[in-house]
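Researcher: Re-running this chain for the archive, since the previous output was lost when a drive failed. Same request as before.
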Amino acid sequence: MSLVARFIRKLVRTSRVRFYRCISTAKPEGKFCSIAPVLCEGKGRISVGEGTTFGFIEDADFWTSYEFLNPRNADSKISIGKNCQICNRFTAVSEGEGIEIGDNVLVGSSVTVLDSDFHEIDPEKRIGGTPKTGKVVIGDNVWIGDRVMILKGTTIGQNSVVAAGAVVSGEFPANVVIGGVPAQVIREINDKTAREINGEKG
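Model: Regenerated structure tokens:
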């Protein structure tokens, strides 16, 4: 790649990051790295731990997408820990008890985390009703694959892995592999499982 091309890429990337920061209505607390633009909208709080990175430049839609953090209500909170790596098109929306993501969490592309149903199931109350909500807690060292959706009231224990495409709802322990629609525990993580996931023999 030529020097001119590298300069243009850097200029476009940094301009997009600054633009989305300027138009955000919520200002996140903490020091973190925005490789991709992060749009923060809402009346609540956002806190991000040091060393956390948003965006991955060598991934699809990097140049046309952004991360979206949306604590909608004044008492809503989205908390992301230290040293997390969050890939492109990440969405977190809170209008309930909040979303809490621990330290050293890996998040794939197109992951969505919600702490509310946003509407009631009853058709008569679907508009203007009171939706169900529940805090989402994602433990330290969790690895979340691409296109995962994590719904209200979910707890994922530390060190667990969520397989790509899973729809996760409920409480899951530490050190397990979770997958499916709806998600369930596939197996426990031990030394042998870890080697298999990493493609190692023995």
